[in-house]
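Figure-free illustration: sequence to structure, shown twice.
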Amino acid sequence: MPGGWVGVDIFFVLSGFLITALLLAEFREFGKINLKAFYVRRALRLFPALYSMLAAAFIFSLFLPEPHKTTIRGEIVAAGLHIWNYGAKLGFWQADTTWLYHTWSLSTEEQFYLVWPLMFSLFLLKRIRQRTALLMTAGLYISLSAYATILVGCALAMMYPTQLSQRATRQLSLTAACAAVYLGYVALTSPETTAPTRGIIALASATVILYLMHNPNGKVSSLLSSRMPVFIGKISYGIYLWHLLVFKILYFSWGTVPSAYHKPVFFVKIAASFAVALMSYYLIELPFLKLKKRFKRSPSTSQT
């Protein structure tokens, strides 16, 4: 899909919204945010599968010639330290020669998880100096990263309207429909992005999220809550983590990079990615997800 980057921006907005909403719910219930529990929950969710994938990538590197071996090992270190995106900005690797390109988005997420909960909890305590620190941190984050779309989701959670009038609901439905059509159009037609387009994508994503939150029993929400989408959602992290490495291993074993439009090759790649994602979920992720219950603060945080 030419505009696959649209899905990443949608996820960034959704992530910012969900994390901020959960932090707000915890603060309202307990009067504070347990940052230690938050970070442990995030680590249990993300780290086991990530470091398993990086370990597999290291083993794969043993069979690679130079300079590929050095490149992938540098990427492994950067991804493990959650700074792959900055390594790319500094020119250590290029998109057309990288082996772990997709980890830029996870690095961005990890940086958000590290900084935002701390700054947001200080903001909730209504301390003026901490509010200033929050604004400075947000400004720094925006200036250093092109992925400030996450903060659009955060803003949506902070300004989330719990009730809407009938007129506002109708207007939201129409606007969300237009936003969804726009997102689909850009995803199908735009292989590259610009800052203004990314801003519009973020606002359109926030509109759709707002609509879904206010229509939990609607047809779209019911469809997304059906068995297959829920199942795909469970293994989606594994698909995201493993698919590119699986593709690279297949290309290496074939000795060539086949056409993306070659149907047999396409289905082999997809099937292999799903198989590895299933193993990742049931053998690696699920056992650690069960441990998250020990760090549960409220009913809502158990699913983060």
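We now fold a second protein in the same way, so the two outputs can be compared directly.
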Amino acid sequence: MLSENYNVKISDEALETVLELAPHYMHSLRLPDKPISWLDTACVKVEINRPDDCARRELKEEAGVEFKDLIKLTDFHNSPGYSDELFHLYMARVESIGDMEPDGDEEMDMERVIIPMTEALRMIDDQEIVDAKTIIGLLMAARRLSVHS
């Protein structure tokens, strides 16, 4: 499943190593969550080399969106010094909006809400939107589109 979701090949040696080492290093998780979490993280790191593929898959799963163009807005580290995770933010020109295709528990409770950019900017000002990556993405997209609140 992970190899299909992330379009990577997971070798038998990698599986055996994760099953052997995970119980010793991930004390907050239980089997089978430990090795699955490690493999998921490893697959994501491989996939980060193809952020446009990830964006295409996530937009389809979480919003039911197919897009034509993917426009790079910025890259940023959310917590330098704590994590080396690099966020890639894009803006997409939407081709169609269809049914969401949830791929796990995380997406099952998601609700798609379409908000005009000026309204989203007002929501940032009124602290209704407080997630850092969402704020950065909306402000960068508004700037690119020359939209003002």
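Summary for the second example: The CA atoms of residues 140 and 146 lie 10 Å apart.
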